[in-house]
Amino acid sequence: MAFGTFVFSRDPAVTEIVAAAGFDLAVIDTEHAPLGVGEIIDHLRAGNAAGLSCWVRVAGYNPAEVGRLLDLGAQGILFPHYGMQPDEAANALSALRYAPEGSRPTCTGIRASSYGVGSFADYTKRANSEVMGIGLIEDAEVVDRIEEVIEACTLTAVMPGGGGDLATSMGLHGQGTHPRVIGAARKVVETAKRKPGLKVGVYVSDLAGAEEWRALGADFLVYSIDYKVLSAAYSGIRQALA
After folding, report:
1. The domain that contains 108 carries what CATH number?
2. pTM of this prediction?
């Protein structure tokens, strides 16, 4: 099982800390975090240097953005609200891979291919085989038809939402541990595990619940957000000091 966390900070030292702490992956966020392309590439460089797998969460289904992030060196793309926009998703997922397997835009001087040093043909084969597309299932209406969504899924992995959009779509704002939210996430995990080859991850905000997801066969757990980890640590320290 692999372990990761979301990174919202602009400082690449956070990604280095995540790697030094023994995590396997970092999800660099561009949907809710104030990160531009300069900060993203700094995080990718820091993560790559430390042996950390770096994914980027995008805000939508823009094929050009997907190609650009992969060119920068992202190893996976995390798509929001998977199952809500199948046509748009198909176009964006096609941009994950080069032809004939997809429609990823081509430039031979990108960071991901070592700026043109070495065989670009070899790089495209490796990139096509190693790139990851991860879909966030974070809408109650998608959970209601999760069997058909998973059946048609061509992603590397899926991941149910939690206290964010999934809870909001159920009218339970911020209540990631509410039984209905946990039940919806469990339904996604159990359905996805039945599809051969599809990996399943879970966002964890409560460490006490991690064992349940391990028992259900989750392939990776993504714990919280760097800012929330920092705020919880400082809040605990302040209370202890008092």
Report:
1. 3.20.20.60
2. 0.95
